[in-house]
Amino acid sequence: MKIVVLAVVALLAAAGSASAQYTGYHGYAGYGIGSNPSSVYHQGYTTQRGTYVQPHYQSAPNTTQMDNWNTRGNVNPYTGRIGTRSPRY
Length: 89
Known about the structure:
This protein is of the alpha+beta class.
């Protein structure tokens, strides 16, 4: 019985921390200001060199890179991946 209770508590804690990252955890490596809640869908296409790019979502364009999903401290809401890039501007 104790094992079941501990397992449930662990699952709830993991779910809570994942949602905290999505809303923009401000302490991760000092960059992100919170993930951009707006997204833009891009259809798949083939580049001039013949490489196929799969359809995907990306954060909506704006005047800062601090809220882009791939900027360190932010999280992509579609994949759950944590951003690793430093902002260029």
